[in-house]
């Protein structure tokens, strides 16, 4: 079914009012939709086979870009709606004073643990009570960079489909599997198949992160930014590791720690 193209210039338009509410978590959940801003992210999504239900373009220059034309054609061919609008409306949609010229509205994937095939990738990232959307987006980018299968968010983590997290992912939210789960569901699932759980941990019984030979698939478990992992979670891991801290700080940023670990596992496999 071919989609349609229209023009909206009024902030009071019912569709604009509806889409503005997607900046709030409860409305995203109710609609099953989320917002992604920028031609680069929208192009990453298209290349990953994901197209928006609605595509908003702010001006003729934006629509004339070759990548934008490709995106428009693909959106219409998939039955989506392309809407030419104004920068002021895009500002309201994105919550930014100087928005980019393209905003896409996408269906939120409904991916659960049972949908994951652990054999498709040697590395998986797992984050427990991750609170910062910037860290979440960075972890997704790291996962994409190292060829990870995806990111599993445990317990009460920040909403991965919030505008800040999507923006920080730079499109990786469309290339990585993303699952939200409880620890009590994750651990039995993990133990039902192959997979080594590696916890970053500052307590006892830890090894230097470069002294371990990691088994695939490796599930890298990162704790909360301020509190780290609960002791029971670390105890359930197959391996507990730490990175040397040569300065005054006693720990790394959660997303940085995930990247260091992911590249260590990747480099072991490359060598």
- Strand arrangement, major sheet: 8-7-6-11-9-12-10
- Based on CA atoms alone, the radius of gyration comes out at 20 Å
What is the arithmetic mean of pLDDT? 94
Report how far the terminal alpha carbons are from each other.
49 Å
The best one-word shape is elongated
Q: What can be said about the biggest beta sheet?
A: 7 strands, parallel
Question: What is the count of β-strands?
Answer: 12
**What is the tally of helical segments?**
11
Give the structural class. alpha/beta
Outline the fold blueprint.
Layout: E1 4-7, H1 14-20, H2 25-31, E2 33-37, H3 39-47, E3 54-57, H4 60-64, H5 66-77, E4 81-84, H6 87-94, E5 102-107, E6 123-128, H7 133-146, E7 150-154, H8 163-169, E8 177-181, H9 183-191, E9 196-200, E10 207-208, E11 218-222, H10 231-236, E12 239-242, H11 254-270
Parallel strand pairs: 1-4, 3-4, 6-7, 6-11, 7-8, 9-11, 9-12, 10-12
Antiparallel strand pairs: 2-5, 3-5
Quick structural gist:
With 271 residues, the chain is of the alpha/beta class.
Fold and architecture overview:
It is elongated and about 60 Å long. The strands form two sheets. Strands 8-7-6-11-9-12-10 form a seven-stranded parallel sheet, with helices on both faces. The chain has a five-stranded mixed sheet with strand order 1-4-3-5-2, with helices on both faces. It is built from eleven helices and twelve strands. β6, α7 and β7 form a beta-alpha-beta unit. The model has no long low-confidence stretch (mean pLDDT 94). Helix content is 37%, strand content 20%. It has helices at residues 14-20, 25-31, 39-47, 60-64, 66-77, 87-94, 133-146, 163-169, 183-191, 231-236, 254-270, and strands spanning 4-7, 33-37, 54-57, 81-84, 102-107, 123-128, 150-154, 177-181, 196-200, 207-208, 218-222, 239-242. It is an alpha/beta fold and 271 residues long.
